[in-house]
Amino acid sequence: MNPPLSSFLPVFLYLSSFGAIFFDSVQALSIREASISDIQLAFKQNQLTSEQLTEFYLGEIHRLNPVLRGVIEVNPDALHQACKADWKRKAKPNGSLPVLHGIPILLKDTIGTKDKLNTTAGSFALLGSVVAHDAGVVARLRKAGAVILGKASLSEWANIRSSKAPVGWSARGGQGKNPYVLSATPCGSSSGPAISVAANMVAVSLGTETDGSILCPASFNSVVGIKPTVGLTSRAGVVPVTPRQDTIGPLCRTVSDAVYVLDAIVGYDHNDGATREASKYIPRGGYRQFLKAQGLQRKRLGIVRDPFFNFTNKPDQALAFQNHFQTLRHAGAGLVDNLKIDNIDIILNSVASGEAIATLAELKINLNAYLKALVVSPVRSLADVIAFNQNNSKLELTDQIGQDIFLASEATNGIGNAEKSALSSLANLSRNGFEKLMKQYNLDAIVTPGFEVAPVLAIGGFPAISVPAGYDNKGVPFAICFGGLKGSEPKLIEIAYSFEQATKVRKPPSFKP
């Protein structure tokens, strides 16, 4: 029998007014809400070790995860990795170690690790499969000294299995819960990374996005999500949907933490050709140099009200954004209001835009290639996965949830005329819509609420940052989203960080029923 949720919130876990880390009279470590900078300072001052930090997060997972279902499995070698990080820190007391050294991180369960962890996309169909090597981003995290704490839950198969599947649900992980309001959606598909960071079950996390899968859970779980330009981070070794839109990015409690993770994972990977072209966008000296409190000065921000700013029956959100616009202006930004993206109704309709047609064909091609490349796997093709689900309906709840998207994808036959036409349509919609608007008004970013702009950014491979913007009258979080052209991460980071520092909206979760 699990203890009541109230017991998960011990009174000693409050923030010191002078920092997020301290020891009380019985040496109980409080690291709830601690940032990477807080943790690294504690490491430096010998107040904390990576082993202690990892033990703390493992304990929080043990207590909270039976309710929140944000984590699928923990790494049996996590404490060993943490001890190695501590040893290396002692061996180099005055040396320069990467900012992520000794920091635990959770990975969405589509991101492959060549270790004792499974990589299953939340499905029993891939349980026991073995990847050939670490995903490109995981190799970079290991090089940076991060502790791979485990795999976070998700909407099964990155929410591409069935149109009827509950958001945040997977067969292996169960139903993820929003830590602010348990009955509210956690959103997906990167629900687990967002839940886990929001609830302080880990310091930082890594998710993936094809269309909204970072921006949506970031918004609903009151965390920061960075959706990088497609190709800026390697997708090699990650369960794919479509490389045309797939991207890997951080979900963290602060913009600075997300930027530290981004710095660690960007760069060229010979196993992902898209990273060659996108590498030209990476600034010399990395991204942390753009964490500027005055970053909103002289920025031109476009406000796209139609159809995104529809606050019918949401007066609290309407008021919040009215205040946020004032904050943006006071911080030195110029706002260009009432802008319209051409053909926005078509773009937001995945069938009309061609996104659905193209993605269904690309899913089959790329998932088959991923499954065939596994060293060991119970399934080797999308057809095998469909058959597994049908033969194990009790495990995968196939009778209730179905797999209509998988079936539609399996029915495709490569990139034919219909798919080529769809791809051409998507390119034209991006060029004559979002790109045209950005260039016509000389914008640094557009500003929208929540995550509804995701398809606009997805079909063109554009980046965005989601920052907590408030809570509705039930306590459910909502966000502000800043989106830009390819390679505009430096500007977006300046904007997002400056907004965050001016507002400091985020608060710890309340675990309301």
Automatic annotation (TrEMBL):
Residues 1-28 form the signal peptide. The keyword Signal applies. Keywords: Signal. Pfam families: Amidase. Residues 53-456 form the Amidase domain. InterPro entries: Amidase_dom, AS_sf. SUPFAM superfamilies: Amidase signature (AS) enzymes. The keyword Cytoplasm does not apply. PANTHER family: AMIDASE (PTHR42678), OS04G0183300 PROTEIN (PTHR42678:SF34). This is Amidase domain-containing protein. It comes from Eucalyptus globulus (Tasmanian blue gum).
